[in-house]
Amino acid sequence: MEIIIVILIILMIIAAIIALEIRDLLSSIVSLGSVGIILTFIFLLLQAPDLAIVQFVVEILSLVVLIRGTVKRDEEVYSKQKFLSRAPILLSLVVFLYFIVLGLKYIPQFGFPKYKLAEYYVKNAIGETGAVNVVASIILNYRAYDTLGEATVLFTAILGAVAILRKIGKIKK
Fold it and tell me: What is the pTM of this model?
């Protein structure tokens, strides 16, 4: 598994360099998005699904905002391009799909968690916390700061997307 993480880190570095060096703005955004998606897979491989979910949501939201701003600005340029000039985008899509399929192999089967700490939480949550619901006791007692951080990141990402995508208050040029 360590070799897979090293390969993914190398791919992240390559995608970041491509995002910096490529002239096409849309291809640069897609390349930048691949960095975040690969980081999501690294979080999954390191058994941090909560971080992977937050990273994935924030990455998708920021990609939507960036792509909308790019296509809206350069709509005339992209409508005149030929199929071959979109090849980097299609190649990136194929690479994304490959890594999604690769990452799905590492998700544990439902009902059989890999984590020893999860077994401890399930066995002792009600007795130690006094809560009636096991899930609520885990989220609010054992992992409260982590949950607060994730909620803050999601709220900030949504607030940023709303601020950028809203139509009221924009200055018309």
Answer: 0.51
- In the chain, domain spans: 2-107
* 10 Cβ neighbours under 8 A, 6+ residues apart: none
The amino acid occupying position 135 is V
3-state helix, strand, coil in the chain (%, to 5): 80, 0, 20
How far lies 150's CA from each of 30, 37, 118, 147, in Å?
24, 17, 19, 5
> Under DSSP, is residue 46 helix (H, G, I), strand (E, B) or coil?
coil
pLDDT in tens, 126-172: 888 888 888 888 877 877 787 788 788 888 888 877 777 776 655 66
Task: Kindly state the tokens that stand for 31.
Answer: 């390349």
Burial of 38 (0-12, 13-18, 19+ CB in 10 A): buried
Report CA torsion sign: 95, 101, 107, 110: positive
26, 70 Cβ separation under 8 angstroms: yes
